[in-house]
Amino acid sequence: MHDYGELIAPDAVRFERMLPGPIGRVWRYLTVGEKRAKWLAGGETELRLGGHVDLRFHNAGLSSLPDIPPPEKYRDMPERVSFEGKVTACDPPRLLSYTWIGGDESEEDSEVTYELEEQDGGVMLTLTHRRITTREMLSSVCGGWHTHLGILIDVLHGREPPPFWQTHTALESEYDARLDKSE
Questions:
Q1: Which residues of the chain have pLDDT under 50?
Q2: What does pTM read for this prediction?
Q3: Please, which residues have CB within 8 angstroms of residue 33's CB and are 6 or more apart in sequence?
Q4: Fold that domain 6-182 belongs to in CATH
């Protein structure tokens, strides 16, 4: 459960997760909106360089188990929130990168990269999120990806994932403490 993301630069974090294959199945859970909605966010992805990415989040809907309310810092965020981006690299079924458009005009777009490699009868997913602009965003991104990747693992294994906000809140707090120690 606690394979923490690794800070690889002041503005970048990397996660590695071994997933049940085959690789084509995992690729579909990264790229097909209906499948991606089960662990991260729905929405279409145009699988070509410069293609449009639509991410429609509904974190409270990722588990049927009872959850806690969103933490105070997320209370003003709508229950359903959308982000857009552009594909910056695409080599099916092994590589997908896209920008994650910032919240306002002054923010630089961050970038998410998924790399898949068949390994030991499974699929190694390496996820890297770059250009994270603030310390607060870094702990949120780390807790978010850790939670979402845990949900992906549960979905791929056919298990009910734990409630999103309960899991994310605990993990974000752990990442805050870990990041404080690294500063």
A1: 1, 106
A2: 0.94
A3: 42, 43, 44, 45, 54, 56
A4: Alpha-D-Glucose-1,6-Bisphosphate; Chain A, domain 4 (3.30.530)
